DNA sequence: TCTGGGGTCCTAGGACCC
DNA sequence: TCTGGGGTCCTAGGACCC
């Protein structure tokens, strides 16, 4: 029995929880819960888009698919070349949101210091006297038992190391990567495995004869700064296990930007069609801004042409707005600026950034626009769409057009 | 290899001001 | 009119993440 004067030593740990093959596992668990007798995880299966809509890439794959060499972002054409009978399931974000939220709820039972990093990843900070590996196993099994899918958990003293650890052998595993384990567990790995070291950076480092994370950890910092600027310092610190960032708290869900983009089912060559796509994207973005109670003061559009070259234009506003019509006006001006006759565009995107929570107008002589009137109109349209569906009301310009009047999911959080 | 959609952060260069 | 240096703001584009 513990004596009154005994000292209990609480230690702080960071756990990184990563759902294994999230979209696929969640779909599998969802189908089993609905009474399906096949578990997608035991098949050669993938989650992938619709090729006819030119959305045909792999978003997630089963372990069996992975073993055959099927990789995320591969085209479905390539996948079928590897395994013609592959089971392809269309993505359904409503399932993913549900499972993601359920996972967070379980994690909250263990710690309130929690940062959602993406739909399928989360950091938690835990103070415990318990063995952290045992505790991580407990959490892992809790999720498996209650929700029917597996996770990997990385345990360490900072976020970077915890994240690297959760990426070791999968699925359904707990790994530690404490500072004294870096040399043994991380330094032998290729530099491209390091968080934030993408292909471009890895290529640069390889040219400098830096091949492993260990090489990077011992590299000359000045050389890294010269070739990679501030990213050089970040990668150098990561390779040495240094990461001073803290758990940001749950409200990371406060977006810095809200955008939508779409690959059109056929290339767009006609500017009239291009305008309609932009308007349709603006409808969703503006509606989402209003749902969040947010106002934007920076708008940008991005086009991707048939050669996959990106073109972008953006504009800072003297006001913060969430008016659909005003946002459309500015976005169409931006389209005017980038559009050249003869263009062939496959993908369109619009984005609203520099978000705030108040409407403001810095110089009201600049705009001939009745914001108050538009705000009540937007409110009215939002309410109609909320009650009767998003497609019940649309702009006249879409009448007889093959472009959908609203593109982008406004229910996503 | 006929290649999605949603984000964040950084940087180079130009415009403009003093 | 030309020359210049420093600072700030804005924009286009790139790199990275899941």
Q: What attributes does this structure have?
A:
single chain; 413 residues; alpha+beta; five-stranded mixed sheet; five-stranded antiparallel sheet; 13 strands; DNA-binding
- Overall pLDDT level: 93
Structural class by secondary-structure content: alpha+beta
Order of helices and strands: EHEEHHEHEEHEHEHHHHEHEEHEEH
Instruction: Tell the overall outline.
Output: globular
Number of alpha- plus pi-helical segments: 13
Trace the largest sheet across and list its strands.
5-6-1-7-8
The major β-sheet equals: 5 strands, mixed
Uncertain spans: none
Strand content: 15-25%
Cα(first) to Cα(last) distance is: 49 Å
Tell me the helix content: 25-40%
How many strand units? 13
Describe the protein.
The chain has 413 residues and is of the alpha+beta class. The protein is built from 13 helices and 13 strands. It has helices at 22-33, 63-67, 76-82, 93-108, 132-147, 159-166, 182-185, 199-207, 213-217, 221-239, 271-292, 324-338, 371-388, and strands at residues 11-19, 45-48, 58-61, 87-89, 114-118, 121-128, 151-156, 174-176, 257-268, 295-305, 310-321, 345-356, 360-361. A five-stranded mixed β-sheet has the order 5-6-1-7-8. α11 packs antiparallel against α12. The longest helix is centred in the last third of the chain and has 22 residues, at 271-292. It is globular, with a radius of gyration of 25 Å. It binds a DNA duplex (18 and 18 nucleotides) through α3, α8, α10, β9 and β11.
């Amino acid at each position: 029995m513990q004596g009154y004067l005994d000292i209990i030593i609480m230690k702080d740990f960071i756990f990184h929880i990563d759902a294994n093959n999230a979209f696929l596992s969640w779909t599998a668990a969802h189908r089993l819960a609905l009474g399906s007798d096949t578990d997608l995880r035991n098949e050669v299966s993938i989650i992938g888009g619709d090729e006819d809509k030119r959305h045909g890439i792999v978003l997630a794959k089963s372990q069996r698919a992975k073993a055959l060499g099927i990789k995320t972002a591969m085209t479905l054409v390539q996948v079928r070349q590897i395994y013609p009978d592959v089971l392809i399931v269309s993505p359904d974000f409503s399932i993913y949101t549900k499972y993601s939220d359920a996972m967070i709820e379980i994690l909250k039972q263990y710690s309130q210091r929690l940062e959602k990093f993406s739909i399928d990843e989360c950091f938690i900070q835990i103070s415990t006297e318990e063995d952290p590996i045992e505790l991580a196993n407990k959490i892992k099994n809790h999720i498996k038992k209650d929700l029917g899918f597996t996770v990997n958990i990385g345990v360490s003293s900072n976020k970077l190391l915890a994240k690297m650890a959760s990426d070791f052998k999968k699925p359904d595993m707990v790994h530690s990567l404490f500072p004294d384990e870096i040399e043994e567990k991380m330094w032998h790995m290729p530099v491209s495995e390091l968080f934030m070291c993408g292909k471009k950076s890895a290529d640069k480092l390889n040219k400098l004869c830096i091949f492993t994370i260990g090489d990077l950890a011992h590299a000359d910092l000045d050389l890294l700064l010269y070739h990679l600027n501030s990213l050089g310092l970040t990668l150098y610190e990561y390779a040495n296990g240094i990461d001073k960032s803290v758990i940001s708290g749950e409200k990371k869900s406060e977006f810095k930007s809200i955008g939508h983009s779409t690959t059109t089912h056929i290339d767009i060559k006609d500017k009239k069609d291009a305008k309609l796509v932009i308007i349709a994207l603006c409808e969703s973005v503006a509606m989402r801004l209003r749902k969040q109670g947010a106002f934007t003061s920076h708008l940008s559009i991005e086009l991707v042409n048939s050669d996959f070259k990106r073109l972008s234009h953006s504009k800072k506003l003297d006001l913060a707005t969430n008016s659909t019509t005003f946002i459309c006006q500015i976005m169409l001006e931006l389209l005017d600026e980038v559009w050249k006759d003869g263009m062939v565009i496959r993908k369109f995107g619009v984005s609203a950034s520099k978000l705030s929570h108040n409407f403001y107008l810095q110089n009201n002589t600049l705009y001939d626009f009745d914001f108050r009137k538009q705000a009540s109109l937007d409110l009215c349209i939002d309410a109609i769409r909320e009650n009767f569906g998003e497609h019940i009301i649309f702009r006249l310009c879409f009448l007889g057009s093959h472009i959908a009047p609203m593109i982008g999911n406004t229910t996503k959080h």
